[in-house]
Every structure is written in C-alpha cells, then in structure tokens.
Amino acid sequence: MSNALTAEDSPQPPKVLATPMEIAGNLRQLQESHDPLIITFHERNQRFQTYLVDVDRDRNMIALDEMVPRDGERYLQAGESFRIEGFHDGVRIAWESNGPLTIDESDSTRCYRGPLPDEVVYHQRRNAFRAALKLAQLVDVELAGEKLKSPISGKLLDISATGCKLRFEGDITGSLQLGQVYDRFMAALPFGKMTAPVELRYLHFEEKISTTFAGVRFHNMSGLVQRQVERFVYQLQREARRFDKDDM
User: What pLDDT does residue 53 have?
Assistant: First the structure.
C-alpha cells in the first residue's frame, strides 16, 4: 500500500522560478485562493501568519496582510530578513526577503508593501496527496496535551501524508498558538484511533459560521502512525477515483 502511494505520487524536485511573469503568476494564485502564509525571521523561532493581498507585476510590488500575532512588526521595522512559505494545492511556494517591507495604512487597512521576490521556490509534493472527506463521513478528532488547559474536539476535513485540516465549533483561536507543537492529536479513523504530535501551521475563525479552521502538520510520527495515515489517505484516494469514473 505504501509502495502504491510512492510509485504514483513520488515527490518532484523543487524548481526555482526567476522570471517576474512566473513569480507573479504563482503569487497571484496564493492571493486569489486566500492561502495562509507563514513568515519566519532568521534566528527566531516564532512564526507569524499573513496573506497576500496584492501582487502588482507592473510596479514590481507585493502587499501582505497584517501579521498575526502583530508583534512581528517590530522585526520588520528593524529591517530583519525573513522567509515566507505557503502551500497551494499541495505545492510549496517559498521565498526570501529581498528588501524591507513598509507599513501602509493609506486605504484604512494595514498592510506591508515591498518588492516582488527575485526568486521563488516551487515544490510540487505529490507524495502529499491531500484527500478530502465527505461531509457525512467526517472523522472525530481531539487536540490535547500539556500546552492546552483542556482537550478540544472537532472534525477532520482532509488529510495527507504530512498533515491535515480540522474544523472546530466556535472561536478557539485564543486557546491555540501558531507554530506550537501539541503532543496529543487523536483521530478516530475507520480502522482504529491514531495518535500523534502535530504542529499548528494555520488558524482562522470564520465569524459568519462561527467555526474555526486549523491546519496541522504531523510532527515526529512513529512508523505505525505513518502507516495508519498512508492507509487512510490511500483509501480516500481510491474512493475519489472510483467516484470520478462513475461521473464519467
């Protein structure tokens, strides 16, 4: 089963995009899909979340949304170099800062403006096929451990070999911290419960539906848990293909 996944979804080597057309096109995908971005400053462990709000190829400029938590702004203002990383449909898109970002509040919204990157790393991770679950088959999950006062229960929305997307009722953003590793993530898979540490990579509260969405990456998984995840992803992948054939 693991071999079947590997043979069909083998990882591709990263590519370096260097033309403004390629760079702007891929950054625009991140912007239009509202994909979360993680900013990390060199020699600092803390992670900050943001979004691309403007990609202007004509002016060779980009704009990023206000960082969460906002105290990362002091590193920007100090001129510290940083790295930005995002994922779009399983593709990792990352770049290094090539100049300072300036804080702009001219349109009554706060953003950071700076030059278009000189280079962007584009990495198609086909071995991280992401399988979505049907609403009627959502799996129960629980996030727990020393970093939480009490366990938080939710639903599994999709899963890949490297991580998954979760849904929780209400606003739980105050209880969680981006970049934090939570040592007990549990999912009630159809063939048995899996438990693994996870790192929180994405967090967003959707006020209209009073729901928090979170993205986690598996952290130091055991071989047994990895096989459980691969088995479940493979099962969902096979079902998706079967339904695609039925539709045809």
Answer: 92
Instruction: Report the pLDDT value the prediction gives residue 131, as an integer from 0 to 100.
Output: 54
Buried b (16+ CB within 10 A) or exposed e, 13-23: eeeebeeeeeb
On the question of a cis peptide bond just before residue 69, with omega within 30 degrees of 0, the verdict is yes
Query: Would you call 196 exposed, middle or buried from its count of C-beta atoms within 10 A (0-12, 13-18, 19+)?
Result: buried
| Torsion-angle region of 24 (φ positive above 0: left; ψ -120 to 50: alpha; else: beta) | alpha
Is residue 3 over pLDDT 50?
Answer: no
Long-range CB contacts for residues 234-241, cutoff 8 Å, separation at least 24: 234/1, 234/4, 234/5, 235/190, 236/131, 236/132, 236/133, 236/159, 237/5, 237/129, 237/131, 240/131, 240/132
